[in-house]
Design brief:
It contains eleven helices and two strands; from the N terminus they run H-H-H-H-H-H-E-E-H-H-H-H-H. It has 242 residues and is mostly helical. It is globular and about 65 Å long.
């Protein structure tokens, strides 16, 4: 028996679009709630960097310099970084460094870390929408207090205390540069355990920590030293206003 064309079920483009938009809205609400909670109740976790401060701390400057220098200029999407990433793809066959801080906030808040084109497209869209609802300052604060810095180090405050025994707001330029360098190169578990058990902890100078790590994780030590040296240029860089 031949089924009339009018009876054949066809996927509805409208239903698919509605489902996509509903999912996007749920994700946006979830991220906004997470950022607002971090902003309004940070005192529960003894956050030391002040949201309404007129000047940036050493740590904030170092993180911005390494991760997203135009953070306060773009709206969650940085076209320049996309062009640079495509250039690296053509030259070296790999793509990285494309995410803005806003996009990393989306990733942290939604806990979606898989690598796929659809996930990246969704992440970019949410980052742009986030800029329509929240201040750049609150987005950035959520990032530094929730990003992963190393073994059992969720957020800059935890990392600063575990590595240097200091509040994030009290880090000097060299210490802040080292903490910022850990974002793409998290402090390894084995290095942390040996460091804390050595009797030397906490060391004041990041160079001493890097030297200590050479025998445990030589590749990590070399890479973090490279980023550490770059990060120290942040304090002469003129960032746009908060």
């Amino acid at each position: 028996m031949k089924i009339p064309p009018s009876k054949i079920h066809k996927p509805s483009t409208q239903l698919s679009l509605k489902k996509f938009l509903l999912g996007l809205n749920r994700d946006l609400d979830s991220i906004k709630d997470a950022v607002n909670w971090n902003r309004d109740y940070g005192f529960y976790f003894d956050h030391s960097l002040q949201l309404n401060c007129e000047t940036m701390s050493n740590l904030e400057m170092a993180v911005l310099y390494l991760e997203d220098r135009r953070f306060y200029v773009h709206k969650g999407i940085e076209l320049r970084s996309i062009v640079r990433a495509l250039k690296r793809l053509l030259q070296h066959g790999r793509i990285n460094g494309i995410s803005t801080i806003d996009q990393q906030v989306v990733r942290i808040a939604t806990r979606r870390f898989e690598r796929s084109f659809s996930r990246k497209a969704n992440e970019i869209t949410l980052a742009w929408l986030l800029n329509l609802h929240l201040s750049k300052r609150s987005i950035f604060e959520y990032y530094i207090y929730n990003a992963y810095f190393g073994y059992r180090m969720q957020g800059c405050e935890v990392a600063s205390r575990k590595i240097f025994g200091l509040h994030a707001s009290d880090l000097n330029e060299r210490q802040a540069s080292f903490i910022a360098s850990l974002l793409p190169l998290p402090f390894p578990k084995e290095v942390y355990q040996r460091y804390t058990e050595s009797g030397l902890h906490p060391l004041d100078d990041p160079s001493d920590i890097i030297a200590f790590a050479e025998s445990v994780a030589p590749r990590w030590s070399r890479r973090v030293m490279y980023r550490f040296n770059i990060a120290q240029q942040a304090y002469d860089f003129k960032f746009r206003s908060l």
